[in-house]
C-alpha cells in the first residue's frame, strides 16, 4: 500500500514539475518575443521532451533493458515458431513411424529372404536374432520416449527446493529445471524439446531418448551393412535400365532394386546423422550435463576463469557413474536387464532434489 502510494506521489510530482517547467519556459519565451521560427522550434522540442517524460513516467521500469525490448518485439515471431514446431511435431512423429515401417517392410521382403537363401545356418540365426532384438529395442524406446512425461515441478507443493521463479508459469523452479516455450510448461532436468518425439526430453524420459538414439543408430548401421551387397547389385542393375535394348526385368525385380537403394541410402544417412547426435549426447551424459546446461556451464566457466576461479559441475559424478545414473544401473546384472533389454524402471531421484558432489564444501558453482 505504502509502495503504491509512494510511486503515485512521485509520478504526480514529476508531472507537476514538468508542467511548471514548461509553463516557465513559455512565459520566458513569450517575454523575449514569441512567434518567431526559433520560438516554434523550441516549443516543439519542449513538447517532445515533455511527451518523452510523460511516457517514461508511465512505462519506465528499472529492470528494462535491450534484451527485454528485443524479447517483446520478437514475441509474435517466437509465438509462431513455437506453435509451428508444436504442430510439426505430429508430422515428424508420423514421418519417423512411416520411414521405420518402410525399412522394416523392405528388410522382410527383400533382405531377409536373400540372407535365408544364401547364408550359412549360423549367420542366418545371428541375423534373425540381431535384427529382431534391434527392432524391439527401437520400437520400445521410441514409444516410451514419446509417451512418457519428462516430469514437471509440482504446483501444489510450496516447500520444494528451488533456485528461481519461472516468469511464464509463476512457479518455483527446482535446480536443472527449465521452461519449454513449445510445451509451455517447466520441465525437470530439461535437456531439449525434440520435434522427432513431439515431446520434451527431461528427467523421466532422458534414458528412453538416449537409448532410442543408440539403438536406432545401431539398427541403421546393421541395415546398411547387411544390405550393402544387395545395394551394389541393385545399383548396377538400375544403371542398365537405360541401355538399348533395355534389360528384361520383372516388376518385382525393379521394385526390389529401387526399394533396396532407398533402404541403403536412408539407413546410411540416418546412421551418420543420428550417430553424430548420439555421440554428442553420450559426451554430455558422461560429463553430467544436459544440452541446456552445456551452454550455461560454458558461460559460467568463462566468467569464473576471468576471476581466477575454476568451474566445477556439481552434477558430475565421474564418467562411468554418470552413465550408470542415467541407465539406472545399480548392480552388474542391470546392464543386461536394464540396458540391453527393454525396461520401464524409473530414473534415480525425483528430478527435484539433486545429489551434488561438493555442495557442502563448495556451494559456489551451483
Ligand atoms: Zn515455466
Ligand atoms: Zn517441450
Describe this entry's structure for a reader:
It is a multi-pass membrane protein. Belongs to the DHHC palmitoyltransferase family. InterPro entries: Palmitoyltrfase_DHHC (IPR001594), PFA4/ZDH16/20/ERF2-like (IPR039859). The protein is elongated, with a radius of gyration of 32 Å. It has 366 residues and is mainly α. It has a two-stranded antiparallel ribbon. It has one domain (72-340). The chain has 11 helices and 6 strands. A hairpin with a 4-residue loop joins strand 3 (178-180) and strand 4 (185-187). The chain binds zinc ion (ZN) (2 copies). One zinc ion (ZN) is lined by residues 180, 182-183, 193, 200.
Question: What's the pLDDT, averaged over the residues?
Answer: 86
The ligands bound in this entry are: zinc ion
Q: Into how many domains do the coordinates divide?
A: 1
Q: What global shape is seen?
A: elongated
Q: What's the β-strand tally?
A: 6
Q: Biggest sheet, in brief?
A: 2 strands, antiparallel
Measured between the Cα atoms of the first and last residue, the distance is 36 Å
What structural class should be given to the helix and strand makeup?
A: mainly alpha
Order of helices and strands: HHHHHEEEEEEHHHHHH
- Report Rg: 32 Å
Spatial arrangement of strands, main beta sheet: 1-2
Assembly state of the chains shown: single chain
> What proportion of the residues is helical, as a percent range?
55-70%
Number of helices: 11
Q: What percent strand?
A: under 5%
